[in-house]
């Protein structure tokens, strides 16, 4: 029986996405080449160009597709602890070389639409948790939830983008504590 072409394509696609993330972490965006990705993935360059017109689109797809698979839903705890955990995870993601390389490349290319797509899942989780807190009376009922989520994430993303100081858990915990003072009933 001949090999299933669809299965082979899925296997090749996953190999290319994985190779792209590994190589951007090892080499950085500037030194990453489609030739290197093809060699590591065991596919031809033409296969990559058939699916992705640029290394930027390849990295974007790799990051979105492979990162999305690892996101867990966890039980809820105390509001401050949940928010601190989420911001600490945001920081861990931002300082991860592959994320940093992909996002900085997208920012450099003025692809804020793609940066927004990469950052949206984190904001959505915060909005959901804050909405639950509003229904439970943990924060004021008049809180604008999307704005409150941006109030939490904004300082973290600004510090990452502008490199104005270290991205640490202590920093993000302070952001949560200050924000909750403003949001609590």
TrEMBL record:
Transmembrane segments: none annotated. Residues 33-52 bind DNA. Residues 10-70 form the HTH tetR-type domain. InterPro entries: Homeodomain-like_sf (IPR009057), HTH-type_TetR-like_transc_reg (IPR050109), HTH_TetR (IPR001647), Tet_transcr_reg_TetR-rel_C_sf (IPR036271), TetR_C (IPR011075). One of its GO terms (molecular function) is transcription cis-regulatory region binding. Coiled coil: none annotated. It comes from the Bacteria. The keyword Transcription regulation applies. Keywords: DNA-binding, Transcription, Transcription regulation. PANTHER family: HTH-TYPE TRANSCRIPTIONAL REGULATOR RUTR, TETR-FAMILY TRANSCRIPTIONAL REGULATOR. This is TetR family transcriptional regulator. It comes from Saccharothrix australiensis.
